[in-house]
Amino acid sequence: MPRILRFLRRPFVVDLRALALLRIGVAAVVLLDVAIRSTDLEAHYSNLGVLPLHVLYQYCWNPYQFSLHAASGLWQAQAVLFLLEAAGAVALLVGYHTRLATFVTWLLLVSVQNRNPLIGQGGDDLLRMLLFWALFLPWGRLYSVDARGRERPARLTYFSAATVAYIVQIALVYWCTALLKSAPEWTTEGTALYYALSLDQVLLPGGRLLYPYPGLLHWLTFATYYTELLLPFVLFIPFRVTWWRLFFVGVMYLFHLGISLTLFVGLFFLINMASVLGLLPPVVLDWLDKRLARGRQRLGPRVAARLARVRPHLARLRLPVRLRLEPGFQLTDSRRALLRHLRNAAVTVLLGYVLWWNLDSVNQPSLYMSQPLRWFGYLFRVDQHWGMFAPAVFKDDGWYILDGTTRQGQHLDLNRQGQPTTYAKPASVVALFKNDRWRKYSENYLFVSNEYMRPYYCNYLLRIWHEDPTHPPLRRLEVIYMKEVSLPDYQVSVPKRELLCGCEPQP
């Protein structure tokens, strides 16, 4: 290979051990996502919840999408699919039949995301894309069950079109979100973080500590904007790659740790932290290998003894299907090379499509990709939009009051476990949300374009309230939003009561 080509491809060479850590990190996040989603099987994924199937198909469905979770409106069917996704993620975590586990996990993740788009956030797109590109990566070659009994690779470095796609995808996340932040509060005024921390719906204790300092928030706004816009360029510098990789990963970890301490963003920060594990350079992984070797020396005998007890049971769980080649068909070196070239060609085309999609997303109105060309993105869910707090920070802050009226005329707030209704602002608005999925749902609930969803939420709340015999019966429930618009310069607006929906028990 010419020296210039070796030089240019250096930024896209990754360590197989780093890919294994990426696999473990992504699988762990998927398991956490499954655990959180499973607490709302009925509410978010069944016909008894806030988005029945007929409403999904009428208002939120794209004809090119698919969802196994949309095959049934029963929460029991959803539970089975959630268990299958968890099993796939566990297999992915330990590297058991890694390629198949990756496909199953990706398939079921796409399926559950398509089932309820009203609770999705930007991190979901990244998690989905990491699994998609991993279908073409050897991230089960090390630190896996699949690697047991196989010789350690002579070379730990790896390069292919898939590693290029993986690194470009990470850069696209930050480039696109910066380019979409076109409002003056990001580009010239430096007030975006002030407005972000003015949102009580997402404000965490760390944000409260920063909020009183406008000068610091002004500086942090520009630091955030230019970090997203400029930092990804270091991933493509073909010299001192180790140093630039360490710099990028370190800054990203500090960046997302800061977000997690100040803003309630669900799994977004964990997904982003897991996404950069594949960039770790050999110097870090050599250090990690030494620590793991010491751990194996101490714990090896104990683990071996316990494995000996369970190995007969594990043997029964082995998949019976094996790929058997016909006697006349052998994977010769030339055939392997051909398959590798075909795979790289396919990934290159896919990456070109993803680049095209992102280029189109940062241009409004759309200039490049026509609607007939989007079917592929919707079908395989490589569609993506990185508009976090873009083009401007949401200003319509406030909190919900679920005002239930009893038959005796008392007013109870279902959002506060049936305490007497009060219009006073709660000490912590974030504490009113069960998890970030509900926070995102409540955000979408406000939009006039989503007015169709309001009665289903109201009736769902009434039903689950009356399922508890200790609760007093209600004759009416009103979903009220106390709108408190974020104003500049620490001005405080007067909350305005907005009735979003009212419903009564079915006779």
From TrEMBL:
PANTHER family: HTTM DOMAIN-CONTAINING PROTEIN, SPORULATION-DELAYING PROTEIN SDPB. The keyword Transmembrane applies. This is HTTM domain-containing protein. It comes from Hymenobacter aquaticus. The chain crosses the membrane at residues 12-32, 73-96, 156-175, 216-236, 243-261. InterPro entries: HTTM-like, Sporulation_signal_mat. It comes from the Bacteria. Its main location: membrane. It is found in: Endomembrane system. Residues 11-284 form the HTTM-like domain. It is a multi-pass membrane protein. The keyword RNA-binding does not apply. Keywords: Membrane, Transmembrane, Transmembrane helix. GO terms for cellular component: endomembrane system.
